């Protein structure tokens, strides 16, 4: 559900046949102009202002904000969290898609809905549930406390909350794709004597690689950019449990606007790179 | 190799047990068990306590703010999203590819970044805020600001739901209507719009569902004034900060209930959209 859109393939350009089924060119350009203004207002302006605010006090302030030790440690933490969560959810996504798309079983619809569940849950709730499980007053709180293990308000909590919010991305992308491809090629490989892993790596993986990559980059963008869920479980300790998005908030609340927007510009860059790879993949898979 | 009847019905490929087992284990550990902690309250939340929280005026106000702003934003997204999808599918124009790519940006942009940049844009000395201030329109720190933030978050949902339906539409019905003497506007209203209603409502529901749970893009621009601009997810956050775990759980349970209802509605709507586009 919310958060992702299936990879679009095979665009058809509507055939232009007669004047009767097309708007006059005045109407056309009026609509294109209006749409352009909407896009400018809703999307382009908010992007531009990140850069202008970041550079308002000049390159030195910008550079200082990015090379600040707290910013560097936030960047490290963000990269580390993504490096753990993205592979875990990728392995799950491939396994789930294999089970769902290549076999028939009862309750398939329920399983797909359950996989989608994290998209329907508010990020704040995604954080809250881990506080209820591992927090001081939670299910395992007393036990964890007795063994001196910290999960909530520490690094493991951030990883868990991120796992939750990015959980469906890869599975979501692969399930429809693998369902469309059916099982014929794999079955042919099986009759020719291929083993399970051979079938997966030689037959299935080449067929799904672009969809898989697409799911991974969307999963990664969300893992690096998640704010609400991580905010609940992080504890906001500078230099320790502060991710890049949380660092943007801290600087902003301290009225260090230029520094805040400088860090935000790094995240904007992440989003732009994600978009470029995404449209490249979309063009690659549409024919 | 002998294959039992049960296995053939399921499929002949290997790996069902492994992948299914792993999927369910991982799903349970990451999603289901933590959610169960919320549903089977671990905080000693009694029904009396739940009710006193749920009927608290501040909590009710936060739900009113969340629901009305999310609905207003999703409605506005419906209108603007239809325009954007129409232009993208029907016309050729310079810069179309960038236009198309930009629409997905709210999906990829971290919500905190959207939050701070929208606040800068609409605050009284911002580019748009300073233009609206003389007209007596305040955006930042009002429900209007929350609505604008949710519009930003929700617009791709509408465009990406309407776009494929519009692409799949055959021109024959339009041509037939034109042969019968219908004008362009009349064709749009009588022929095209009825087919676009299912995806539009689905897009609205997706944007609305995302809007009621949204946190990052809203907290900066909303000003977070109790009773006026405090959204439900933020109330959960502030109850947690005051160590009121039972209260936070109660507010979250209500929000979760609304989300699950939306998920159900969206599933039904998506089936309807698929049927309509076929």
TrEMBL record, chain A:
GO terms for cellular component: plasma membrane. Keywords: Cell inner membrane, Cell membrane, Membrane, Sulfate transport, Transmembrane, Transmembrane helix, Transport. It holds the Pfam family BPD_transp_1. InterPro entries: CysW_permease, MetI-like, MetI-like_sf, Sulph_transpt2. This is Sulfate transport system permease protein CysW. It comes from the Bacteria. It is found in: Cell inner membrane. The keyword tRNA processing does not apply. The keyword Glycoprotein does not apply. NCBIfam families: 3a0106s02 (TIGR00969), permease_CysW (TIGR02140). It is a multi-pass membrane protein. Part of the ABC transporter complex CysAWTP (TC 3.A.1.6.1) involved in sulfate/thiosulfate import. Probably responsible for the translocation of the substrate across the membrane. The complex is composed of two ATP-binding proteins (CysA), two transmembrane proteins (CysT and CysW) and a solute-binding protein (CysP). PANTHER family: SULFATE TRANSPORT SYSTEM PERMEASE PROTEIN (PTHR30406), SULFATE TRANSPORT SYSTEM PERMEASE PROTEIN CYSW (PTHR30406:SF1). The chain crosses the membrane at residues 29-51, 71-98, 110-139, 151-171, 212-237, 257-277. GO terms for molecular function: ABC-type sulfate transporter activity.
UniProtKB/TrEMBL annotation, chain B:
It is found in: Membrane. The chain crosses the membrane at residues 12-40, 60-89, 101-123, 135-159, 191-212, 245-269. The keyword Transmembrane helix applies. It comes from Paenibacillus rhizophilus. It is a multi-pass membrane protein. NCBIfam families: 3a0106s02, permease_CysT. Residues 63-266 form the ABC transmembrane type-1 domain. The complex is composed of two ATP-binding proteins (CysA), two transmembrane proteins (CysT and CysW) and a solute-binding protein (CysP). This is Sulfate transport system permease protein CysT. It comes from the Bacteria. Part of the ABC transporter complex (TC 3.A.1.6.1) involved in sulfate/thiosulfate import. Part of the ABC transporter complex CysAWTP (TC 3.A.1.6.1) involved in sulfate/thiosulfate import. Probably responsible for the translocation of the substrate across the membrane. Its main location: membrane. Belongs to the binding-protein-dependent transport system permease family. CysTW subfamily. One of its GO terms (molecular function) is ABC-type sulfate transporter activity. It holds the Pfam family BPD_transp_1. One of its GO terms (cellular component) is plasma membrane. Keywords: Membrane, Sulfate transport, Transmembrane, Transmembrane helix, Transport.
